């Protein structure tokens, strides 16, 4: 059972939405359709992932700064309908919110927006400032219909923008959140297009160096528990098999059994926990 | 007894040109690889990612023992104590001679025997996959049979 919990998906013709032109509003629903060429590309990637041995794949939609109920479009529902069904592979839907200075006041993960967030199976936050990092770790990892399960870290930025404080990480881990390491940063190459438009990543040789430094730091502070590793890969040639990724993690000073857990056991328990979000305060069944 | 222990890595290079339709660089079928090219690419990868110290640790014992162009299967021998560095360098390889590949380590073992068994099994799997693509039944004799027999002999002829 191998997991790739970060399969980046961008909407066709997404970015600039003219808000001033009121005539354009009805076009929002048509943007969720993917062109056949895009579907072919995604199917080819899924074939490759299957060949490499991944069985659970989560499609990731990234949103910048905050979820706005007026403009947010769930592209993944449309995508899942257009893909052919594969026996033996499970598809999940994931939403990543990139947090930065503007999101400090609140970024839409509130009860009012719960209906927007509900169709997604997993929610992730990508903080880029110390304040948003502590927000993500402390308030948003508590069990509720709005918890964020994954705290993804921008590992290729020149200097990790915040210090990974032991206390924050420990609280997040105790509440059950996990920290994510995207292995695409180690291989280099083009980064996730949506992330670079949000200004979160850096590519080339310096990106790789930062990745090694930051990933090592994450491993050190979490002591190896509560880490998941996932793709985040933009171009197909950067995919690697799960065993190879486990080996890369051992090069980060992570013990072999913990590296194996990060790749297999931690994502599994994360997904189970994500299902608990749909229940009331993480209670999965009635006590007998 | 201080025996010199090795690790044998069975690596498959997955061709990305069939996946990524927009590849500008050539696919593996146009630029055939061989053992020497792989060794050079591996050496460059170790030096870029792990520096001269990494190459010093791995270089003396690194050996590309077998490569099959049809199935893109490669057998590499490294010393046991540093095999993780070599394995990491294999994973971080992005292209060999301008051809983008995805290296996938299928099997790691301490003796040559199990590597041979695993390599032969993998070859058979790949040939079976080719055959289903061509929609041939298993009884239909084609050039792949030859290839299987030859490669099995070559693999079994490997020695330490």
Automatic annotation (TrEMBL), chain A:
Which GO terms fall under molecular function for this chain's record?
A: RNA binding
Q: List, alphabetically, the Pfam families matched.
A: RNase_P_p30
User: Region labeled Disordered — which residues?
Assistant: 1-34
Name the UniProt key words of this record, in alphabetical order. Answer: tRNA processing
Q: Name one GO cellular component term.
A: nucleolar ribonuclease P complex
A Gene Ontology biological process annotation?
Answer: tRNA processing
InterPro entries assigned to the protein according to its UniProt record, in alphabetical order: Pol/histidinol_Pase-like, RNase_P_p30
**Is tRNA processing among the key words of this record?**
yes
> What is the annotated localization of this protein?
Nucleus
- Broad class of the protein's primary localization: nucleus
- Compositional bias (Low complexity): 14-32
Q: Report the family membership.
A: Belongs to the eukaryotic/archaeal RNase P protein component 3 family.
Recorded protein name is: RNase P subunit p30-domain-containing protein
UniProtKB/TrEMBL annotation, chain B:
Does Nucleus count among this protein's keywords? yes
Report the EC number(s), separated by commas if there are several.
Answer: 3.1.26.5
A single Gene Ontology CC term: nucleolus
Reaction(s) the record says it catalyses: Endonucleolytic cleavage of RNA, removing 5'-extranucleotides from tRNA precursor
* Uppermost EC category: hydrolase
An example of a GO molecular function for this protein is: ribonuclease P activity
* Chief site of localization: nucleus
Gene Ontology biological process: tRNA 5'-leader removal
Superkingdom as given in the UniProt entry: Eukaryota
Keywords in UniProt for this one? Nucleus, tRNA processing
Q: Which Pfam families does the record match to this protein?
A: RNase_P_Rpp14 (PF01900)
**Which InterPro entries is this protein grouped with?**
Pop5/Rpp14/Rnp2-like (IPR002759), RNase_P/MRP_POP5 (IPR016819), Rnp2-like_sf (IPR038085)
Where does it localize?
Nucleus
Provide the function of this protein.
Component of ribonuclease P, a protein complex that generates mature tRNA molecules by cleaving their 5'-ends.
Give the protein family: Belongs to the eukaryotic/archaeal RNase P protein component 2 family.
- Name-wise, this protein is Ribonuclease P/MRP protein subunit POP5
Native source organism of the sequence = Suillus discolor
């Amino acid at each position: 059972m191998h997991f790739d919990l970060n399969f980046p998906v961008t909407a066709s013709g997404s970015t600039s939405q003219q808000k001033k032109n009121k005539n354009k509003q009805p076009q929002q629903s048509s943007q969720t359709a993917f062109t056949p060429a895009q579907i072919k590309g995604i199917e080819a990637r899924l074939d490759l992932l299957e060949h490499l041995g991944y069985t659970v794949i989560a499609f990731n939609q990234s949103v910048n700064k905050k979820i706005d109920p007026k403009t947010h479009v769930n592209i993944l529902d449309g995508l899942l309908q257009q893909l052919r069904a594969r026996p033996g592979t499970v598809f999940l839907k994931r939403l990543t919110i990139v947090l930065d200075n503007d999101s400090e006041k609140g970024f839409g993960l509130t009860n009012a927006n719960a209906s927007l967030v509900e169709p997604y199976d997993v929610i992730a936050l990508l903080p880029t400032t110390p304040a948003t990092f502590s927000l993500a770790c402390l308030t948003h990892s508590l069990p509720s219909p709005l918890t964020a399960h994954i705290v993804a870290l921008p590992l290729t930025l020149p200097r990790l923008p915040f210090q990974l404080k032991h206390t924050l990480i420990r609280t997040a881990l105790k509440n059950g959140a996990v920290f994510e390491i995207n292995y695409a940063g180690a291989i280099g190459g083009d980064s996730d297009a949506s992330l670079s438009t949000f200004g979160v990543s850096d590519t080339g040789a310096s990106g790789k160096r930062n990745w090694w430094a930051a990933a090592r730091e994450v491993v050190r502070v979490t002591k190896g528990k509560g880490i998941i590793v996932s793709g985040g890969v933009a171009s197909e040639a950067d995919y690697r098999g799960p065993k190879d990724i486990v080996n890369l993690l051992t090069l980060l000073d992570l013990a072999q059994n913990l590296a194996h857990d990060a790749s297999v056991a931690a994502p599994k328990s994360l997904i189970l926990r994500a299902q608990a979000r749909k229940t009331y305060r993480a209670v999965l069944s009635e006590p007998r | 007894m201080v025996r010199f222990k090795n690790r044998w890595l069975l690596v498959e290079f997955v061709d990305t040109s069939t996946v990524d339709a927009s590849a500008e660089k050539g696919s593996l079928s146009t630029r055939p690889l061989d053992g020497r090219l792989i060794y050079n690419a591996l050496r460059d990868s170790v030096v870029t990612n792990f520096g001269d110290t990494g190459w010093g640790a791995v270089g003396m014992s690194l050996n590309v023992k077998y490569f099959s162009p049809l199935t893109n299967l490669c057998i590499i021998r490294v010393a046991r104590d540093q095999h993780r560095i070599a394995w990491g360098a294999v994973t971080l390889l992005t292209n060999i001679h301008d051809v983008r590949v995805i290296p996938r380590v299928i099997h790691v073992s301490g003796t040559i025997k199990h590597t041979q068994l695993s390599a032969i099994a993998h070859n058979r799997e790949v040939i079976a996959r080719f055959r289903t693509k061509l929609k041939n039944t298993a009884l239909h004799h084609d050039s792949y049979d030859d290839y299987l027999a030859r490669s099995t002999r070559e693999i079994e002829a490997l020695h330490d």
